[in-house]
């Protein structure tokens, strides 16, 4: 038994620790990006969302358009934060981060020929999937907590007047959305051993969710599309106004954990490197 193998076994959760160590720079980078987006958008609320001329302008637009882009409630602080950060730029940034991490965790590692080397160090396939998924989960929760902190700090200066408890629930849903896209990418990578499939499936979940929600907002006849949109699950009840919907939290985090379980099974049964 090599000294590297012995050392790997002595470290608690070695693959989790290595995944976090290898990704701390990208985590910091995404946190900086979310910080910049928050600092750019939120202080503009008094001049945009709370401005009477802007309200008149939005009132003159077709209701289908403002609902499709989520601007129908932008005059309120909660609606503005929802439309600009949680439903648009923040969702975009966290989805890209989650899909990138999820697709690389197993699919990218296998594609680069590193997964077989990891297995040679006396760790099981289940251990690889579980610990790397735990690292993905922690990184996304840290992004969600970071967004909560940013919005809470800017709540007063930006005059958005958010209830912090409801903001916490909204942030949990925000992180759940990113976790779902990242989990889909993770699962696709575990099923195929290819990073590109992980990126494709994760991006599909994010983009389709956004498009289905936008189209479903335009007409009552199309509202059935909301049933297929994780964004609609998370935000249709306006969590920053009414608090987080427990069923939405259960759907986002439960489906993500189901994807993780499928990933474990797939990695245990599949030939590696084929």
Task: Tell me what the structure shows.
By secondary structure, the chain is an all-alpha fold. It is built from twelve helices and no strands. The protein has helices at residues 3-10, 14-41, 52-60, 63-68, 77-111, 114-119, 125-155, 164-192, 195-216, 230-235, 239-242, 246-269. Helix 2 (14-41) runs antiparallel to helix 5, helix 2 packs parallel to helix 7 (125-155) and helix 5 (77-111) packs antiparallel against helix 9. The mean pLDDT is 90.
Short description:
The chain contains twelve helices and no strands. The protein is mostly helical and 274 residues long. Helix 2 (14-41) packs antiparallel against helix 5, helix 7 runs antiparallel to helix 8 (164-192) and helix 7 runs antiparallel to helix 12 (246-269).
């Amino acid at each position: 038994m090599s000294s590297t193998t012995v050392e790997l076994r002595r470290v608690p959760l070695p693959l989790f620790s290595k995944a976090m160590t290898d990704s701390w720079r990208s985590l910091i980078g995404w946190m900086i990006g979310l910080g910049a987006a928050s600092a750019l958008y939120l202080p503009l609320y008094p001049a945009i969302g709370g401005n009477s001329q802007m309200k008149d302008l939005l009132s003159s637009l077709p209701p289908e358009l403002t609902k499709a882009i989520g601007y129908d409630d932008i005059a309120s602080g909660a609606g503005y934060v929802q439309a600009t950060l949680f439903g648009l730029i923040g969702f975009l940034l966290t989805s890209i981060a989650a899909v990138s991490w999820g697709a690389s965790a197993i699919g990218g590692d296998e594609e680069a020929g590193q997964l077989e080397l990891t297995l040679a160090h006396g760790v099981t396939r289940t251990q690889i999937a579980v610990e790397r998924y735990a690292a993905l989960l922690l990184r996304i929760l840290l992004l969600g907590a970071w967004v909560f902190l940013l919005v809470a700090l800017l709540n007063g200066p930006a005059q958005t007047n958010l209830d912090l408890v409801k903001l916490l629930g909204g942030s949990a849903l925000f992180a759940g959305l990113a976790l779902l896209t990242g989990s889909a990418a993770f699962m696709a990578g575990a099923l195929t051993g290819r990073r590109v499939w992980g990126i494709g499936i994760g991006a599909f979940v994010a983009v389709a969710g956004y498009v289905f929600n936008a189209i479903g907002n335009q007409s009552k006849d199309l509202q059935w599309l909301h049933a297929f949109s994780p964004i609609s699950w998370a935000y249709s009840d306006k969590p920053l106004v009414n608090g987080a919907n427990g069923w939405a939290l259960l759907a986002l985090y439960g489906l993500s954990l189901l994807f993780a379980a499928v990933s474990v099974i797939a990695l245990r049964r599949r030939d590696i490197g084929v």
